Amino acid sequence: MPLHKLENFDPNYRETFGADDVKTLELYTEGGDRVGSVADVLVDDDGHFRYLVIDTSIDFFGKKILLPIGLSRIDYPARRVYVDGLSRQQVEGLVEYKEDTIFDRNYEEKVRTGFRSPTSGVTYDRDTYNYQTEPALYGLNEQSHQTFRLYEERLIANKHRIKTGEVTVGKHIETDTATVTVPIQKERVIIERVAPTEAGNVVDPTELKFQEGEVARIEVYEETPDIRKEAFVREEIRVKKVVEQDIVETQETIRREELDIDTSGNLNVQEHGTTTHEAI
Fold first, then answer.
1. Which domains does the chain have, with CATH numbers?
2. Residue 5, strand partner residues
3. Cα–Cα distance between 115 and 108 in angstroms, integer?
4. How far apart are CA 199 and CA 219, in angstroms?
5. pLDDT of res. 183
6. Residues linked to residue 267 through DSSP beta bridges, in sequence order
7. Which residues pair with 83 in a beta bridge?
């Protein structure tokens, strides 16, 4: 399985580890002797730590070595990495790690050989070997690498759009009876018989003309109402929506875990960045 430098694998690894940067830690033996400092970390395709790249240039022989992660104990509060049993003589005999090192199975086996105990009973098989084969080198010691998490609840505010009602706007027809007044005119004929103004005068025989069938014609008219209906726009109805802003406040009970430290015996327990608790 190929290995990757930590920052190449996860450019945001500092955020991943809660702002703890393993590449700033110093390497010490359990006895308190400084061995070097962590220059880098090599991880596998799944992001598991496999090796710490230790720079011993200040303290020893000016070279970098690979330390299998299972041999270390990382203490972020103390800004240190502890390794047990690593001496100056061992560092001198360990395989050097360089940036241009061809990192293959043979090279890894040379690295492991420098740390493997003669009584480990591990027989290297190139085709079947994996990191789980040697938990002493690659397994994390849970007693030395414990992570205790404190949880708290937070209120997360989201909005959901729900339908609260519906407005339907339509139209219907209503009927009514309307009355309109139209003045009209009618013509009628009045026939009057009156006495002649020259009653009793003798008509000259030469002017007397008797004619049969003489007719007087008078045309009579009257008006009739012409009623029709016309449609026109009485009013316009405009329908639209407006969005009103409102603030809704709600309360919930949230929980938070706080750390309780209970010590016994004569020891000092230091909480990183805060208070030293002394037990008697």
1. 4-149 (3.90.50.10)
2. 42
3. 11
4. 30
5. 92
6. 279
7. 29, 72
